[in-house]
Amino acid sequence: FSPLGEHQLRGLAAELVVLERLLDCMQSPGEVVKSWVGPLGLPQDFVLPSGGRLEVKAIAPNAATVEIANLAQLDVDYGPLSLVTV
């Protein structure tokens, strides 16, 4: 086990913010937790029961751009995709 760097911690925090928001708006907490696939290494961070996908990016308050690690993160072949910035 190695500690997370600042970039990874910021990304994890952003995903947890989105997880919390999803808990507020989805009926089943179990579905919300199952939808969070970021820790599994899948291209997007959330795969919702509806089939929609969320890619979460943590950005600085004055950021004008986001960094995409690879094009698979923006692949819409598997369903609707939303880019969420925190």
How are the elements arranged and paired?
Elements: H1 6-25, H2 29-35, E1 46-47, E2 53-57, E3 81-85
Parallel strand pairs: 2-3
Antiparallel strand pairs: 1-2
What is the 3D shape? globular
**What percent of residues are in strands?**
5-15%
Strand order of the largest sheet: 1-2-3
Helical content class: 25-40%
Distance between the termini: 27 Å
List the total number of helices.
Answer: 2
> What do the pLDDT scores average to?
91
H-E order: HHEEE
- Poorly predicted runs: none
**Total strands:** 3
Global Rg: 13 Å
Structural class: alpha+beta
What does this structure look like?
With 86 residues, this protein is an alpha+beta fold. 31% of the residues lie in helices and 14% in strands. It has helices spanning 6-25, 29-35; strands at 46-47, 53-57, 81-85. The protein is globular, with a radius of gyration of 13 Å.
Supply database-style keywords.
single chain; 86 residues; alpha+beta; three-stranded mixed sheet; 2 helices; 3 strands; 31% helix; 14% strand
Please summarize what this structure is.
The protein contains 2 helices and 3 strands. The chain has 86 residues and is an alpha+beta fold.
